[in-house]
Amino acid sequence: MIGIEEKDMIINRIPAKTWNHLHMNQSRVGEVVINRTGELNASVNDVSLIDDGKLNNGELDNIIGGCGQEITEAAKKSQTEPVYYITDKKNAGFVRLDFNYGKSNADINVVGIETKENASIDVYMDFNGDKDGEGFAAVQTRLYAAKDSVIRLIQIQRVGAETTFINDIGGYCEDGARIELVQLYLSGKNRYEGCEIKLAGDGSSMSAEIGYVAAGKERLDMNYCVRHIGKKTECAINAAGALRDTAFKLFRGTIDFVKGSAGSVGNEKEEVLLIDEKCVNQTIPIILCAEEDVVGNHGATIGKPDEELLFYLESRGIPAQECYNMLAAAKLLAVCGKIPDDGIRNEIHDYIKEVY
Q1: Residues 6 or more apart from 330 whose CB is under 8 A from it?
Q2: Fewer CB within 10 Å: N-end or C-end of the chain?
Q3: Residue 1, C-beta contacts closer than 8 angstroms, at least 6 positions apart
Q4: CB 209 within 8 Å of CB 240
């Protein structure tokens, strides 16, 4: 692999520039260093490993994620070899990918997932790092769901405390296809999350359940965009998390109704718990509409812990700090409960309880 170093990378651009005075339209990532393909351990069931992404006329290779073209170009420059998986099984195939990061990181991976017509697949990605790990790591995931198929992508992010991590997702749905996301963002100094799903086929749909926590001086930067292209498409984006200390979080959520997407429905909601006075939250809910016959809803609930609830817990002998931990953990455990696999769900449940 050829190593690359870039002082600046612009990612997570929103589709329609706004909020210029607050500098929320995009993000600038500094000190990007890549010189190797990240270590990846894989286990699969009813899924095939394929040599390239040339199926479906090359669509898998052409998918761009929410972080933007820059991540694709970085992967190409570093000569990272993508790994592609495909299934034609009607009962859910299974892929578990464990990304193991050390104390010093300069890693990038590209993963492609494809389903054939009427097939389904569950994909688990665990981004796990040394707790004191530092450096840079990035993963780009491309999803292609053929007609009436389902892709479920579950991601757990628990990288090192000084690691800059980029998680880029791009997806494409044919008629009646569905992409489901369950994501937990638990640790990392600078975390950039991008996701763009194209609901190209009539009756296609997507959902995202996102749980996060940021503490200390951590930065969490998210950009989600769903493009409704086909008729009668549906999306639902639900995010919930907690901020503490001087942590910073920016969530961009865009529902884009393209002309011709008649009968489509999009919903987006975020709940943010601000535990400390000095943490910073920014939320941009956006609906773009070029079609009249659509329904779009978005909203955000942002606030401090309920004083009466805190008083009740403390009156039962629970220290204030433990109360805050319980409230933060509750946001994460609600999303954790949506992980379909019992073993993985219990594993992450125990991890959250141990940390919080």
Answers
A1: none
A2: N
A3: 35, 36, 37, 78, 79, 80
A4: no
Q: Which sign, positive or negative, has the C-alpha torsion 150, 151, 156, 162?
A: negative
pTM recorded for the entire structure: 0.94
Ranges in the chain, pLDDT < 70: 1-3, 19, 51-58
- How far the first Cα of the chain sits from its last, in Å, is 39
Which tokens sit at 217?
A: 């001086």
DSSP class per residue in 284-338: EEEEEES-SSEEEEEEEEEEPPPHHHHHHHHHTT--HHHHHHHHHHHHHHHHHTT
Tens digit of pLDDT for each residue in 32-80?
A: 888 888 888 999 988 988 765 555 546 777 899 999 999 888 888 888 8
Three-class secondary structure of residue 154 per DSSP: strand
Residue 298: C-alpha distances to residues 235, 289, 290, 303, 304 (Å)? 11, 13, 17, 17, 21
- CA-nearest of 277, 353, 276 to 321 is 276
Cα-Cα-Cα-Cα dihedral of 269, 275, 277, 282, to 10°? Answer: -20
Q: Which residues contact 348 (CB under 8 A, 6 or more apart)?
A: 156, 184, 336, 339
